Please model this.
Amino acid sequence: MFSPFQVEIKPSVISRGVFLLLTVLSLVSIWLSGLSVTLQVVLSLLCGCYVFYGWPRFISLTHHRCITGLRWLADKNVLAVCLVGEGWVEVEAVQQRLSFPLLLGLSVKLRGARRTVAVVIWPDSVSADQFRKLRVLLRFAPPPLNASHN
Model:
C-alpha cells in the first residue's frame, strides 16, 4: 500500500483558531450570564488556567507527551509515534476516534504506558497528500500486529 509511511505533525493554524474562538466564546458567555461577579471572576480564571494548560499540549505541541510524528510500516505491521521528549515509541493499541474530511482523531496506547494519548490531526498539520494517505491507511490497512484496532 503506502508502506513505509511517515508523517511529521506540525502545529495547526486551524486548531489555534478554533481553540481561541472557543475560549473567547466561553469568556463572553460567562460574563453575559446572570452569575455573581465573584463567580464570573473565578470561572474566568479557570478558563485562563485551561488556556495555559492546553496550549502546549494541543496547540503548540511542545509538551513532552505530544505526538509530533507517525511511522506506519504496513508491510511489517508496525506502528510507532514520535514523542517530543522521548523520540520514537512503539504503539500497543490504536483506535480511530474521528474521521471527518477535515479532522482525524486517534487514541494511541504506547508500549509500557498505562494511559492513552490522543492525537488530533488537522489538514494543515500535514501535507494534503499525507492527510489523504493517512485517512486511507486508517480506514483500509490492517492494524499493526502489536496493536488492537477497535
About this structure: Residues 5-10+65-140 form one domain.
